[in-house]
Structure formats: C-alpha cells, structure tokens
Amino acid sequence: MPHDSLRRFKADFFQALAHPTRIAIVELLREGELSAGALIERLGVEQANASQHLTVLRSKHIVVNRKVGNQVFYSVRDPLITEVLDVMRRYFYAHLTEGQAMLDEMKSEAVTLG
Amino acid sequence: MPHDSLRRFKADFFQALAHPTRIAIVELLREGELSAGALIERLGVEQANASQHLTVLRSKHIVVNRKVGNQVFYSVRDPLITEVLDVMRRYFYAHLTEGQAMLDEMKSEAVTLG
DNA sequence: ATCGTATATTCGAAGAAGCTAATATACAAT
DNA sequence: ATTGTATATTAGCTTCTTCGAATATACGAT
C-alpha cells in the first residue's frame, strides 16, 4: 500500500488524541501555557497518570514544555492543533444527536469557548 | 471533571481514526463510494481484517453503507470528515521535517488529491 | 548536606485492540 | 435445493494501552 508511512504518522497523531484526558489537556492549554501542576489540579487525576499522558503528547510533538526552576510549563506546539479541534467541534456538533447528554455539555462549553 | 462524556465521545472519534488502514479507507472513499471488495483490493489486507476495520468506522458513524444485491457499498457519512483530514493535512505538512521519508509521499499525494 | 516540592519514570496487573484462521450469513444463479 | 460469491462474525492469540503504587530525579530553600 502506498503512502503507508505517512498514514502511520497520521494514525499516531490521532492515537495521541484518542483519550479523554489528553483531549482535556489540549483544551486546557487553549488559552496559553500551564504548569504540570496546574494541569493535574484541573484534570483531577493521579499525578503519575497525568504525567504519562503528557509524555504521550510530548512524544507526538503535540505539546512542548519549558522548565522554570522547579516547574514545567506546557503549551500546544502549533495553533493548527487548536484549529483541528475547532473543525472537529463543528463535526461533533453536527452529529450529537447520537448522545444527548453531551449536547448540554456542548452548549455550556460553547459559552466558555465562544 | 466537566465535559467528560463529550470528551469521551471525541476521544472515541480519534480512536476510530487511529489506525493506518482506517485512514486509508477514509482517504479511498474521498471521491465517492466503493464496495467492500474494491476497498479490500486497494488496501491489500486480509478480507476479515478490512471488514473489522469497516465495522469500527461504522460503529463510530464515520462511514455508512448500503447493500446492493450481493455487495455492500461504503461512503464517508459527512463531508466534514474529509474536511477534518484536510486541515490535518496542513498540519502534517507543516511538521513533516519529523520524518523525511513521508515528505516525498506527501508530495505525490498532493498531485493525486489536488 | 538535608528536606520539601514538582515532575518523571518504572513495574506489574488489567483491559482493549489487532491479527489470522475458521466459520457463518446473505444473496444470486443455476 | 445446491453452489458460488461477497461480506460479516467469532475464537484464540499476541501486542498495546492504561492505571495506580512505588521509586527516581531535579531543583529550591534552609
């Protein structure tokens, strides 16, 4: 099959986003960088677990980090990623009759994110 | 954590695309519907395997199918999905210094897909 | 040097996803 | 009714993912 290594690359990217916590991380970083600690607090998951998810996102170059003293600040590497999620938002919105509970969440999210 | 079921939904969607063969399927269906047989031939994978991947895409409503006699024709359900992949293409193109072999593939793919 | 805080890594268990081979279903044609 | 073709499903195995608990590293403060 041609284009195969390219498709592996694409699949890896999708795989990186294929977890609710990792989506939450990217969405939290929407407005700018946050420390690992701040992320963990907002995510409400185990420290080790969050760190593992950050490792996944880092390894696929979806987020980047910089160290400041004791802390590590994360941010999304490329605004295109946020844009991808925005296009997807339209998609999800168009098809959310397939899960009514989420529609309500979606509306309040719309208020938050504009 | 709020928005969580929505994020599960999104994650499921990404998960559905997190495999090279399934990406290939969606890309093959770009120009219109194809029978399962035609897909399998172009994919060059085991019949059962392709069928399983189609089941995954169907279960996440990414593709739909219609039966015609003996055959089953698949198509992408919503053009937005193709659009998502197009935005991603820009993303991949912007970051493909991380895998040089793919850049060449990408260029020939650009010829094919315009 | 020691202690505390922030973050990362490793390990082992549990579950999910993927593959192939085999079997099943559905329809067409004879 | 039987046979052939197209597609789907199941079973068993292997590999990948995720998690929490424990441990390690890095840095700052005392």
What is the helical fraction of chain A, as a range of percent? 55-70%
Rg result of chain A: 15 Å
Biggest sheet strand line-up of chain A: 1-3-2
- Within CATH, the superfamily of the largest domain in chain A carries the name Winged helix-like DNA-binding domain superfamily/Winged helix DNA-binding domain
Strand content of chain A: 5-15%
Structural class by helix and strand composition of chain A: alpha+beta
| CATH architectural designation of the largest domain in chain A | Orthogonal Bundle
- The CATH class of the largest domain in chain A, by name, is Mainly Alpha
Order of helices and strands of chain A: HHEHHEEHH
Mean pLDDT of chain A: 88
- Indicate the multimeric state: homodimer
Number of helices of chain A: 6
Largest interface: A-B, 48 and 48 residues
Total domain modules of chain A: 2
- Uncertain parts of chain A: none
Question: How would the global form of chain A be characterised?
Answer: globular
